[in-house]
Structures are given as structure tokens and as C-alpha cells.
Amino acid sequence: MEKVFRGKAFVLGEDIDTDQIIPAQYLVYSLEKHGEREKYGEYALSGVPIADSGLPQGNIPLVAEGASESEFSIVVAGKNFGCGSSREHAPAAMQIAGIKAVIAPTYARIFYRNAVDGGFLIPVESIVSLVENIKTGDELELNLLEGHVRHLESNETFPIKPLGQVEEIVEAGGIFAYARKMGKIGASANV
Amino acid sequence: MGMTLTEKILAAHAGVKKVEPGENVWVDVDVLMTHDVCGPPTFGIFKKEFGENAKVWDPEKVVIIPDHYIFTKDVHANRNIDILRDFVREQNLPHYYDVGTERYKGVCHIALPEEGWTRPGEVLFGTDSHTCTAGAFGQFATGVGNTDAAYILGTGQLWVKVPETMRFEIEGKIPDCVMAKDIILNIIGDIGVDGAAYRTMEFAGSGIEAMTMEDRMTLCNMVIEAGGKNGVIAADATTEAYVQARTDKPYRIYQSDADAKFHSVRRYKAEELQPMLAMPHSPDNKAGVSEALNVKLDRAYIGSCTGGKYSDFWAAAQILKDHPVKVDTFVVPATTEIARQLQENSINGKSLLEIFKDAGARIGEPSCAACLGGPSDTFGRLNGAEVCISTTNRNFPGRMGSKSSQVYLASPYTVAASAITGKITDPRDYLA
To answer: CATH homologous superfamily of domain B278-429?
Structure first.
């Protein structure tokens, strides 16, 4: 797990639900097959009403038309990110689009759990919502070692919460790697 | 210090005497349910992690109920059904409710209880957020993602963070015009779409004790709309009668201790409850129906795990039996058993199915249908800027299809009354 990394911010509002993260009509595609997996990147966050996509000005899609990867790699959002359905396609789609971390004050629990157990991205909890402090396109440095996110242009830092109980799973890269490390399941895929 | 109902179930399945909220425990799983959307990726992860020749931990405990994208020409959706069939054949799984056969059921959360898979005291995980519906049977039931489901498939276990319990007590007699849907919309409006995040919502009180199993399922179904991990109602004689009619398997009834520690207790007086709405675009955007009268509608929808049960249609039929609908009205029974009941049961000599048809409603095949939008040819899907009133569970932007549509969530009574007038209407105008 990368503990310090930089990326461009993509800013969203509160209560972004999984239908906005990946609309249900796209869940028919395979997450494994080449040629279909990329569609999850293409449609990641495409359910967000365009006026609310890429705040504060809006009208910025996460992924440019025709592309399957985004220029943005850190999503900054308001409370209760990932509410709604249990579809693991949601954090998977964001990962396929190139998102490495989300920074939000709170998460819906199934999204949080899927992000951690599937090793798709790091769900970082900020102390307060940073939606008012960060604009889409701003360069950020996320520092999990020191527990803050830094706005590179202004050099302002904002504290984040430690990962706590799930840190070991995040560090291992997901529930399977963690369970192997703990000796709960066999070491290789064929055991 | 005593324990809550949920803590007791988790402790028993973790093999320990006591658990505390916030603690992570590994629990043994009694039933794992999956469907056509999340089954295929779950099986993919299972094979990747446990090997191409790996076997599921217990074929008797795996239940596969295709229900999401069934009646569609979408080739990818139909391929997912084939993937389910291949896995079932290869693993020799006995509990598969295949599409196009006598066994086909429809919406998983209603099919599970109908088929005896919801039993008090058990732990049920499902790859669908509305798996929490089964908490109505006094069990721990919650939704998980594909990776967690694949882990369960291989091991029969999963880690769980023990949730704190919020208790909701409803005392007194619930007015006839008020349905369980109104009660849960009211509660979600009070606490917000994240008001129960990571927590259990436990329902109790004389108002709950008087409820049928279907009403209790409606309450527990929507706890996820408040962010809840699970909803639960202690099993009683009503639960036992329902369960015993459908399974011979043993079960265990747990109750919260009198000295259990709750996160909070909220009390509602049943007689003060009213027909409610969740307005666009969030399930917590509550209003009394009387506050939103005359909003013009394009469509009415009655269906889903929340509002597509037999009792939901019986309620709608009470209103539609005497009046034609004024807007496009879609009726989608959750399961084949409910579809059969609509044909067999009648009001004043007319079957419920005939009542809906004569009122001008369109009848769909049992499945999730337009509740979550789905492929473009999905029955009832909102493909444009329609304003819809629906008995379903979510109204976030684009949930039922188009991002430009607007969805009002309401009870079957309110949806039926509104279908008649073409605008949001108080069901009390039509209930004697």
C-alpha cells in the first residue's frame, strides 16, 4: 500500500449513492473480461447529475468522453459516501477509472467494507468535510503516515483519521491477503 | 450488563459468551444468498482465490435466486444467468431458483422467506443491500459485496464489526390508513440517510407486535436507507407460525435483555402516524402526504422487495377496485407465488389481477424490474424526465433509470390513490 501519494482531486457533494457511482444498467458487464472491464472505468461516477459532478463549478465528468481512465486520482466528497446498494462494482469502477483514495467525513458501511476487503481503494475519513476547501483539479498529497492531506498550492494541511481496525486489511491489500497472513486460509489459491 | 438481540446472535455465531459493540468478530454463516448481478463476479473471485477446482464450503447453505435482470434482451445480462447455471452445475448446488423453470421465484428478499430460508437466530449474508429484510424474522441479516461473499463461499465465515443498537418503539394501534412503509419513511426522515450508519435498528413495541410478517419485512427492508447494518425484530408467535409453515429446520429465538445497552431509544405513538412520502432525491426527504398534494405525476409503480408483496397489492386493490388509473401504472409482483395469489384471491368476486387490469394498470413478470432502472428494455423503467410515485425503496438521482426522472416514495395505499388522480393524493380520501 502506498502511504504517501499525490494526485488531482475530484470533488463531489454529500450522500453520493452507488447508483450514481455506477448506474445499475452497466452491472451486466464482466469485471474480468478485457474489453468489458474498461467500461466500468468509462462509466464510473457517470450517474452523478452533471451539475454536481466536479465541484465547485460542476459540469466536469470524472472520465472524459471515450476514455476509461481519469486524470483525477483522489475523490473528495461529503458525508455518507457510497450509500445505497451493496454492489462491489462501485469501488471497482472507481479503481478501474484510476481512483486510489476517497476522502470523506463518513461512509456508508457496505461501500467502506467493499473498498477495504476488495482492496480497491483507500476510504480515508477526514475530520470534517473538505468539500468547501478543495476544488476539482487541485493537486493533493495524501499522507497516511502523518495523518493528513496537503493542498499543494496553498500548502494547507487537513487532518485525517487513522484507519484503525481495518488498517491491517488495507495494508495486506484485501480480506484474502489478510486472512492468508493471519493463517485463516491456505497460503496459495489451490489450498 | 445484558446484550441486545443482535449481540446475542453474533456472540453465538462467533463461539463466544459475549460481544461488545465496536469489536470485530469472525462469525459462522448459516445462509449465503446471491443473485444474477453479483453472483457471477462472486464466483469469479471465489475461483481466483481458492482455485479453479475449489468447492463451496457447504452446498446446503448456498441459495441462488436470480431476480434482477431476467426479462430482458440484453445479452450480457442473459450471459450472467448462464454463469449462474454453470456454477450451480459444477458445484452441484441444490438451492437454485432458475429462470424459465417451475422453480423460478423472483425477488430474492421475498423468495427467501417464502422458501423457508429466513429463520430466527441465524446469520444470513446476501450480495444485496436489502438482505436486511430478513431481520424481520429475528435473525442477523445484512448485505455484503462480492469479495466478502466469495470469502464466505470458501470458508463459511466472515468478520463482522459488532454494531451498536438503536431501538425504535412503536406503541399503540396503528391507524388503518398507515402502512409499515409510512412508518419507516417517517423514521428515515427523522434520523437521515446516515442516521443509523454502522448500527442495528431494532423495532419493538405493541405496534410492531400487532404487525404481520410482511409489514415487519417492510420496516427491516429499508433500514439500509438509513445506513443501518441490519434491522431486527424479536421473533414471536407470528414469526413462528410463518416459519414453521415453510421449513422444518430448527431455529432459536433471542430477545434483547432488559438491561441491554442501546445507542438510543426512540418512541413513536402509533395513533399519531400518518401517510408519508420521501420526495426526490433522497429517502430521508420526508413530507406528510398532505403537505405535497397536487404534485403532478406521469407514472405510478407498485413492486419491489419493499412494496411488491401480497399485502402491498391487497392494499392497492382496496383503492383501485372502484377507480380507473389516470397515469401509466405498473404492477410488478415480487415473486411467482405472489403473482399466483393475485390470480387466486379476489375482492367482491373479482381477482386482484382483474382489478388491476380493469383499472388500466400494466402487469409485469415477477422480478426487481424498474426499482433499480436496469437495462433499457426493463418493464416500467423511467427513460426520461418522468415524475413517478413508487412503492420502492430508493429515489436517489437516476435510481429508476433516467437521471432526469423524479421519484416519490410512498405506501401502496398512497401510490394507488395517486394513480387514480394523476397527482399526489391522500389515500384517506379513498379509504372508508
So the answer is: Aconitase, domain 3 (3.30.499.10)
